[in-house]
Write a structure and sequence with these properties.
Blueprint lengths: L12 H5 L3 E2 L2 E2 L1 H15 L5 H8 L3 H13 L4 E2 L5 E4 L2 E2 L5 E4 L4 E4 L2 H10 L5 E7 L6 E7 L9 E4 L10 H7 L1 E3 L2 H11 L5 E4 H9 L15 H10 L10
Antiparallel strand pairs: 1-2, 3-4, 4-5, 5-7, 6-7, 6-8, 8-9, 10-11, 10-12
Helix pairs in contact: 2-4, 3-4, 5-8
């Protein structure tokens, strides 16, 4: 589990004071950490103006930094530079709520919702709630770092990993949990869609467990394709859908 000596919303003052501004630009890593820690603490990312106040930097520099982070696939922005997603957190409802001890988040998808307790040291267990997209039946699980939650439900991922960032909000909105494979089949038939990848709760938990490790800390880097493939293989996934 990643840990940090800083609080979940803290921004390192030494980073801000020693090179955060370079030729008038805010260090994107300082901004990235501020965004994720604020999301973790409050369940919301904050507007560019709020992030400017948090980092002590001009709003134009914050907006430029947010666009750079989006280009690096750390964030998803709307046309006004407002944060839509900072995986595993979402600023918009995509089918899941994730309730901690004192914070409520929108879960970006089945994958992200199950990842939250693995990312946050102070949230060893969260309540993930959703409805089956096919029949509307409500489901909820206590998801912890210890072991997968019990249940016979399944997750369906419609978009292969190589294309997930073509439209990542659409991709995440489609990664849902269903009552059973029968509900998945009925939902796909009703929409005349081809099946994607179906996994049980244990596989989903393994996929989520370490995927975002370190994202709240300075120095985090996203996995390259080879490292990601190794992670998927270790989680027990297989086939061309996962680039394996």
């Amino acid at each position: 589990m990643p840990t940090s000596s800083l609080g979940p919303e803290a921004v390192d003052p030494e980073a801000l004071g020693s090179g955060a501004l370079d030729s008038g630009a805010l260090d994107p890593e300082v901004l990235r950490v501020a965004v994720f820690r604020r999301f973790a603490a409050r369940g919301a990312a904050g507007s560019p103006a709020e992030l400017a106040a948090l980092t002590g930097q001009p709003e134009p520099a914050v907006r430029a930094g947010l666009r750079e982070l989006a280009a690096q696939r750390h964030l998803v922005l709307d046309a006004d530079d407002r944060i839509v997603m900072a995986h595993p957190f979402s600023a918009v409802p995509l089918g899941f709520s994730v309730m901690g001890r004192a914070t409520l988040w929108w879960g970006g998808c089945a994958w992200d919702s199950f990842a939250v307790p693995h990312l946050l040291p102070d949230e060893p267990e969260v309540l993930v709630a959703t409805r089956c997209p096919a029949c509307g039946r409500p489901h909820a699980w206590s998801v912890s770092r210890r072991e997968p939650p019990p249940g016979t439900q399944v997750a369906h991922f419609p978009v292969p990993v190589a294309r997930m960032w073509d439209d990542v909000v659409h991709t995440c909105g489609g990664q849902r949990l269903f009552c059973s494979p029968d509900c998945v089949a009925a939902w796909l038939t009703a929409r005349k869609q081809q099946p994607g990848y179906v996994m049980d709760l244990a596989a989903l938990w393994r996929l989520a467990a370490g995927w975002y490790a370190g994202r709240l800390d300075y120095g985090y880097t996203r996995r390259d394709p080879a490292t990601a493939a190794a992670y998927f293989r270790q989680a027990g996934l297989e086939g061309a859908f996962w680039g394996l």
